[in-house]
Write a structure and sequence with these properties.
Helix content is 29%, strand content 19%. The radius of gyration is 27 Å and the shape is globular. The longest helix is centred in the middle third of the chain and has 21 residues. The relative contact order is 0.10. By secondary structure, it is an alpha+beta fold. The chain is built from 19 helices and 27 strands.
């Protein structure tokens, strides 16, 4: 069948679009699967370090999208966390029943634009879904318009066995919720809105029929249960709620196919949204894709990839021909806001989203944590991107607590736990590693010649000195619920945001941060502060084992680093706090890999006795499942965050995290990040021993991280460890769960491991720290 619909087979007459949809507000809304297989946005060049219209890439597009289960999922417009679409999928009426894309199909996701070696050059995607009963196949090509606020879906539907009638199902979640939406449906366009945000879906050929309804009551999918669209509602009228828009396509007979393009425009009014879609159509979709890719003399993603001066050489350290390295470069840059330059988020997903209530706005992981932020900025620097890490460094004062921070009545200098990209406060726990890491990033950029002496001095007074002062003096937080007194290196929350006390990983960052702060202070003409910072770092470093290393622990010979000590006595077996449904257990029963960060930053040598003593307990795979941390999955070293971790699926029911409340059955799974962290440690140890052959590290840890990538070359937060009741998705060991994919930190750790191997030096190691403490 031709793309314009010619040669259509006979079909049932379409219902007339006349009435107002009943059933407001519809079913309670949720988000959608967070195990993304694809994510994308246009490449936008900075203008003087900021995002502004009129630069080399023209107007700035502020549209992001994600893919999961073969369908378009959360799509954002405006700020990077402002979702407007839950999902767009096809329902197909077949001769033997209704089939729904994502639920009744298998899928394949791949990059649309690759080089001769198969390495991706842009985050444009080809997605193919195949009905499990072999009745049809749908191919979609998905990308954004870099010069408009619009998303493109180019679809081809093929009837393989029996006749089929496909329908497009668009589920808006305007203004970042699934409630309060209004909609209208016509054969020429579908519309949705809430407040001052609108979308318009324009098909390049009119729909056969169209309808809008409230989910679970009058929506198209519910109506199609009997194989017919019996009602065609033109509007939601005065009602608002959780809505679905439906557009019908012609019936296809076996062997026939149909190609249709759909462009979704966004704007502050219906006219603006329609204009955005129309501009994209008028430009020609082949041309729009060429601009997105940066083909020829167009400026796009090819240009960004070409600007990464170190990407080719670090990709040589991979075991997959560089495919994941190039994909990681794309994913790290995609996950930056396009209004606030340098605002790097944790993940373009909402963890376990298909069971997360969408009644209220939720950022999920589409937000700024200075810890994840640091990892991403350092990985981009490792790739040879100098512009984004600099923009990131300049962004950081927006998320630092100042005297004029709204609502603050307490200490200043520390960095907010979690914020929206525009600086809006979300969480306010004090995590000392998140206060140290901005200092560490600034020092790295200064030593790389990216931050000038003059700018460093200015940022020292504005941001670095207040942060370093807090790492020495602490203070009482006075923001929202938080009124705790912080006395460094005791931290209110360690890097997993769950427990208070003395943490090896947090202390490693604090010692490193203060040591390089001293270097910056001297360069900025403040020797008194430099001496104070270094003295505090020396004090903290000298007491690491006394505070955090037990000599009468539960495991092995009793000598090892704790995950966390609640006080200054690591031998008192004090209980940690309850968290994620897990009981409070003695601190000596909980081990994690945080002690390896002491080596990464240079606070301890790789062969320090305390480090070597802890490795056997960290690696023990004979321990019972609750306390076991290491799991070799398919021959790949994998590690959980810590023993007794409850941040994951339920072992008893297979349900998502938090479903039914916090229960002891919840279990945190293996995080690929730790395969990279262990690889960094083994590299440091090998280099200390004078090794020349680093291939064992590459084969175990680089290949290991690559094995955790999904078909779209996206790396997850967690992978299935095989423990407990199987989930409804039937995960296999080593497969990413519905936690969060792509996790920017995971991609960053992989990139940094490649850079460390290429340099034969740990990328995150700080020379002044190593020279002082690890000799």
């Amino acid at each position: 069948m031709s793309p314009d619909g010619g040669g259509q087979a006979a079909r049932d007459p379409a219902p007339e679009i006349v009435s107002v949809a009943p059933g407001a507000p519809g079913d309670a809304p949720t988000w959608v699967n967070a195990a993304k297989t694809g994510a994308g946005a246009s490449y936008e060049a900075y203008v003087d370090g900021q995002y502004r219209d009129g630069g080399r890439t023209g107007d700035v597009s502020r549209v992001w999208f994600s893919l999961a289960d073969g369908v378009l999922t959360e799509t954002m417009y405006g700020l990077i966390h402002e979702a407007q679409i839950k999902q767009l999928r096809f329902a197909v009426v077949t001769d033997t029943g209704l089939s729904v894309e994502g639920t009744d199909t298998d899928s394949r996701t791949e990059y649309l634009h690759v080089d001769a070696a198969g390495r991706p050059l842009s985050p444009a995607w080809r997605v193919v879904t195949t009905d499990r009963q072999g009745r049809y196949e749908i191919e979609k090509r998905i990308f954004t318009d870099p010069d408009s606020q619009a998303l493109v879906v180019r679809a081809t539907v093929r009837a393989l066995a029996g006749g089929i009638t496909p329908y497009v199902l668009l589920e808006p979640h305007m203004a970042n919720t699934g409630v309060g939406d209004s909609g209208e449906a016509g054969q020429g366009a579908l519309y949705a809105s809430e407040g001052d945000v609108h979308l318009a879906l324009r098909p390049t050929w009119p729909f056969e029929t169209a309808s809008v309804g409230f989910v679970g009551v009058s929506d198209g999918l519910t109506d199609l249960a009997d194989g017919r669209l019996d009602n065609a509602y033109g509007t939601t009228g005065a009602g608002t709620g959780n809505i679905m828009l439906t557009g019908g396509l012609p019936r296809l007979e076996p062997g026939q196919s149909l190609s249709r393009d759909f462009v979704i425009g966004f704007g502050s009014t219906r006219t603006a949204a329609s204009s955005a879609a129309n501009r994209t159509v008028a430009a020609g979709l082949d041309e729009v894709l060429a601009r997105f890719n940066g083909e020829g003399d167009r400026v796009g993603w090819e240009d960004y990839i070409a600007s990464l001066t170190d990407l080719p050489r670090i990709a040589e350290q991979s075991t997959d021909g560089g495919r994941l390295a190039y994909a990681s470069a794309l994913m790290l840059k995609v996950q930056e806001d396009r209004t606030h330059a340098g605002a790097l988020i944790a993940s373009l997903s909402n963890p376990w989203g298909d069971t997360v209530n969408a009644t209220e706005p939720s950022t999920g992981y589409k937000a700024v944590w200075p810890r994840d932020f640091y990892q991403v900025a350092m990985a981009l620097l490792a790739l040879g991107d100098t512009e984004t890490p600099l923009a990131a460094f300049r962004y950081l004062p927006q998320v630092q607590v100042r005297a004029d921070t709204p609502g603050n009545t307490g200490a200043t200098g520390w960095f907010l736990q979690k914020t929206h990209v525009d600086g809006e406060i979300e969480w306010v726990g004090v995590q000392l590693d998140q206060t140290a890491m901005p200092i560490m990033l600034g020092w790295k950029l200064w030593k790389a010649g990216i931050v000038s002496d003059a700018e460093l001095t200015a940022m020292y007074g504005r941001m670095i000195r207040p942060a370093a002062d807090f790492l020495v003096d602490g203070g009482t937080a006075g923001l929202l619920w938080n009124d705790r007194r912080i006395t460094p290196p005791w931290t209110q929350q360690e890097r997993w945001e769950e427990q208070e006390g003395y943490s090896p990983s947090t202390t490693a960052a604090v010692v490193a941060g203060l040591t390089v702060a001293a270097d910056i202070a001297r360069a900025s003409g403040d020797p008194a502060s430099a001496a104070r910072y270094q003295a505090a770092a020396d004090d903290y470093a000298s007491k690491i084992e006394a505070r955090m290393f037990t000599t009468n622990g539960e495991w092995g010979d009793g000598d090892y680093f704790l995950r966390l000590s609640r006080n200054e006595d690591p031998d008192d077996k004090a209980p940690l706090g309850e968290n994620n449904g897990q009981p409070a257990l003695p601190e000596d029963r909980i081990i994690d890999g945080g002690f390896l960060e002491l080596v990464r930053y240079g606070v301890r040598a790789p062969d320090a006795p305390s480090i070597l003593a802890t490795l056997p307990e960290y690696d023990d795979q004979t321990r019972e499942a609750r306390f076991r941390v290491r799991y070799d999955l398919n021959g790949v070293p994998g590690f959980r965050r810590y023993g007794n971790d409850g941040y994951g699926e339920n072992t008893d029911t297979g349900g998502n995290y938090g479903v039914g409340g916090m229960t002891p059955g919840q279990r945190g799974r293996v995080w690929p990040i730790f395969t990279g962290e262990r690889g960094h440690y083994e590299l440091a140890r090998a280099l200390q021993a004078g090794a020349t052959d680093l291939s064992p590290i590459r084969d175990a840890y680089v290949r290991g991280m690559e094995s955790f990538a999904n078909g779209g070359l996206l790396l997850p937060e967690q992978v299935w460890d095989g423990v407990g009741h199987p989930t409804p998705r039937g995960y296999r060991p080593g497969q990413g769960t519905d936690s969060a994919t792509p996790l920017a930190w995971t991609h960053a750790e992989y990139v940094k491991l490649l850079r460390s191997l290429a340099d034969r030096a740990v990328w995150d190691r700080y020379a002044p720290v190593e020279e002082r403490y690890a000799r």
